Amino acid sequence: MNEAQKTDAKAAEIAAMLRGRENILVAAHAGPDGDAIGATAAAGWLLHGLGKRFALYNMSGLPANYAWVRLPQPLLASLEELPFTPELLVALDSGDAYRLGPELARLLETLPSINLDHHLENPHFGSLGNWVAPDMAATGQMVAEVARAAGLPLSGGLAEGLCLSLVSDTGSFAFGNTSAGVFRLMAELLDKGLDFAGLREHMDTQWSLARSALWGRLLGKVESRFGGRLILCVIRREDMDACGAAADDLEGFVELLRRHRGSKLAATLREEAPDRCKLSVRSFGRGEARELAARFGGGGHQNAAGCTLSGNLEDVLVELLEAVKNELR
C-alpha cells in the first residue's frame, strides 16, 4: 500500500467513525492559531454536512483576529455551555492532550476520542482512533481528506476553513512543508468556488493600533547574534503593557524576523510571567526550529516551533543562547 492509499484508508476510517456517532464535540488546542481555527471550522461544516449534532469548543474562545471566520455554530469557551453530553471528541491540531486545556483533558479519561494532528511528537492520545500525519502541512489538510472520504464537496464554509489552515501553517505557502499536495488542494478549493482574494482580505486586515505600536517598539529591540545567524527579539511584559497589546498581537512578528539576510534562525522570547517565558522559533532549511524547541521540551514543525520555559527572563535568555550556539554548530 503506497502513501496515497494509506491516506485514503485512514480518512475513510475516520469518516466511518464520525458517521457512526452522534453528539460530537470538536476541539483544538488552546491559544488557537489559524490551523486550529480553520480545522475546527472545517470539521464543524463536515459534521453539519453529515447531519450530526455537534458543538465546537476551545478553552481560549475565538481570538478577535479570527472573528470573521464562518462557523456553523458559535465556538464555546466553556464545557458548561455544551447543549448535550458528548459521546465523542474530535481533537484537532493538538500535539498532546494537555494542549486542549485541563477541563477537556479530564473529560478525555472517560470520553471516546479521535485524534487528528500533524505534529511529529504527538503521543497518539485518542482512545478510539488516531491519525497523526507529520507529512501533512496542516491539520486542515487532513480534515479535507476525511470530508472527501465522507463524500462531501470541498466548498462553502468548509473550503474557507481548509484554506485558512493551509495558508496559516505553510506561512502563506513559504515554509518547507508547502508540497504539491497543498497546491493541488488549493486548486480544488478554487475550482469549487473559493473566494481566495476575499479570504485574504479578511486575514490581512485584522491589525489593531496596539499591534502597530507594539511592532514599532519591538523592531527597535531586534538583535543580531552569532554573526547574524540568529535574529532575536526579547519581549518584556512592560513592552506589552506599554502598548496595551495582547499575545495575539504578536502573531506574525517572528516570521518578519525570519526575513533578515543571512539568518538561520529567528526567535522571539516573551516574558509571560516573572517565572515563565514563551519561545517562538522560525527557520529555513533542515529544521533547526523544531530541534531547538525540542531541547526545552517543546515541539512543532520543521521550520516553525515553540515552547514554554520556566525561569526568569534573564536566566532563560542565557540558557537559550547557549542552546542556539550548540544548535548552530
Characterization of this structure:
The chain has two domains: 3-204, inorganic pyrophosphatase (n-terminal core) (Alpha-Beta Complex), CATH 3.90.1640; 209-328, Roll (Diaminopimelate Epimerase, Chain A, domain 1). It starts with a helix and ends with a helix. It has a six-stranded parallel β-sheet. A six-stranded mixed β-sheet has the order 7-8-9-10-12-11. The radius of gyration is 20 Å and the shape is globular. It has twelve helices and twelve strands. Helix content is 40%, strand content 18%. With 329 residues, it is α/β, with parallel strands linked by helices. The mean pLDDT is 95.
Question: What labels would you give this structure?
Answer:
329 residues; alpha/beta; inorganic pyrophosphatase (n-terminal core); Diaminopimelate Epimerase, Chain A, domain 1; 6-stranded parallel β-sheet; 6-stranded mixed β-sheet; 12 helices; 12 strands; 40% helix
In short:
Helix content is 40%, strand content 18%.
Helix/strand class: alpha/beta
Going across the biggest sheet, name each strand in turn: 3-2-1-4-5-6
CA gyration radius, whole angstroms: 20 Å
Terminal residue distance: 40 Å
Shape: globular
How would you name the oligomeric state of the polypeptide chains in this document?
single chain
CATH class of the largest domain: Alpha Beta
CATH-derived architecture of the largest domain:
Alpha-Beta Complex
Number of DSSP strand runs: 12
- Write the CATH fold name of the largest domain: inorganic pyrophosphatase (n-terminal core)
Rounded mean pLDDT is 95
* Range of strand content: 15-25%
Give the helix proportion (percent range). Answer: 25-40%
What kind of sheet is the major sheet?
6 strands, parallel
